[in-house]
Every structure is written in C-alpha cells, then in structure tokens.
User: Fold this.
Amino acid sequence: MDLGIQGKRALVCASSKGLGLGCAEALAEAGVDLVMNARGSDALEAEAARLQNDYGVKVNTVACDVTTAEGQEAVIDAAQGVDILVTNAGGPPPGLWSDWDRDDFIKALDANMLTPIAFMKALLPGMIDKGWGRVVNITSQSVRAPIPALGLSNAARTGLTGYVAGTSRQVAPFGVNINNLLPGIHATDRANSLDSGVASQQGISMDEARANRAATIPARRYGTRQEFGAACAFLCSQQAGFIVGQNILLDGGAGNMTM
Ligand code: NAP
Assistant:
C-alpha cells in the first residue's frame, strides 16, 4: 500500500534499536526522511547509515538523552519543521510499590510523560501551520492493563494518555492526528532485560522465562519490531487521517478486554 507520505520528514526519538528503530525503518521504507536519536552513537550511526543506504532517504542523527532539557533542545533544533513525530524513550525499571520514592517518580514522569509532551509542544505548531501532521507516542500495554511490577511506568504512561486524549482533539481540526501505540511484549533489549529479571527472581533460565511468557500470549510468541513499525507507519499515513486520539494495542491478544 502506498502510504502517501513519501518526501515527508519525521523525528523518531530513541530509535537506534527496538521499537523506535522499527518505526524509523517502516517510515524510511515509505520514503520519509528521518531525524533519528539515541544516547549512544554507535548503533545510531550504524542504523542511520543502513536506512539511508537501503531506502534512499536522508537521515540526520542527534545522539543525546531525550529526557534532559539539553537533549530535548538539541533534538528539537534538528527536527524543526517535521511533519511526523514519534516519541519514545527507555522504560522505567520494575519493582515493588514500596521501593519507589519521589525522585523515582519524577524520573519516570520526566522520561515517559513530560518528554513526549515537550516534543509535542515544540513541534505541533509547525504541523498546525502546514495543516498536516502525525504524532505517534510509543506507550505500553500497561496503560490498558497495568502491570503490578511496573508501577512507575503505569503512573507515567497513563498521565501521557490523559494528555493525549485532550490534546489530540484540540489539534485534529488542523489536520494533525495524535495517537498512541501500546506495545505488548516485543522481542527487544527491553524484553530481554525484563525476562532476565524474572529468570533470576525465579531461578530459571532465560529461555524458560521467555517460553513461560510466550505461553501467556494467545499468538504464542513475542511481537517483532517490524510489525510494530508497520503499525506506526500506517498511523502516519494519509489513510489514517480519521484516526484521532486512539490507544492501539499490539499485544498478540494478551490483554483480554472489549475496549
Ligand atoms: P529497547 O530495545 O531497549 O530500545 C530502546 C531504544 O531507545 C534504544 O535505541 C536506546 O538507545 C534508546 N533510548 C533509551 N533511552 C533513551 C533516552 N533517554 N534518550 C534517547 N534514546 C534513548 O526498548 P524497546 O523495547 O524498543 O522499548 C521502547 C519503549 O517501549 C520503552 O519505553 C519500553 O518500556 C516500551 N515497551 C516495550 C515493550 C517491549 O516488549 N519491548 C513492551 C511495552 C512497552 P540508547 O540506549 O543508546 O540510548
């Protein structure tokens, strides 16, 4: 399907690996020029060069931590005038309700709520001026079905979800669509680190931890970054122009709910 976005320009935050990379690659395949970002520059430069080479799009990179004020400034500077924004950052660590104090919550809110809000606030005006824009926030299945050990993530991401519910309706009249993509378990470094926590807690191997988790998913496997990226690119397409303020779950059927 021609997504109708060839020649547009996108910022994809936290995109040297995992789900962010999946989104960057699917947009590149649709002919979208990219600004890619991650803290470390090795994987970032390698993936940027690969996408540029494989898809013939222009790719700029900004190596920095998007959760810091300086990082946001550098990325926003490089991304002025983008048509598409994909927000993303690493997720907070798992734990027990009694582990977390104020500083832990501030860190999680900064990374997974206030950072995407800062990017939207900076880049939505340019999209509104052009009368066209797409924003996809990578959140989590935990927005729909909170995961007990991910209390920091549950708290920050539901805050972002509430913000998007209002803001998406305020910018839709200008041809700008904001939606959230909610990953269930996907085969990335993040899933490896969660599985390794479970493996050491339960005294089982990584393979067993993975197999146990996959058995709880009706699709009986983890999602791939390519599947996730394809959904993101569709939400950024011309065809997705009537999809506003939605929370779309990609979880292989793991969450059993009607809404
Ligand atoms: P991942 O495989 O660990 O990849 C994270 C990517 O983000 C890397 O490119 C990393 O590069 C970059 N990054 C991390 N923190 C950053 C920061 N502060 N500033 C700039 N770049 C940063 O993670 P993932 O699985 O793709 O997960 C992406 C998001 O989806 C996370 O918030 C995660 O919690 C959420 N999620 C994932 C799953 C899953 O199953 N994978 C499920 C639910 C929710 P550097 O390390 O070099 O910065």
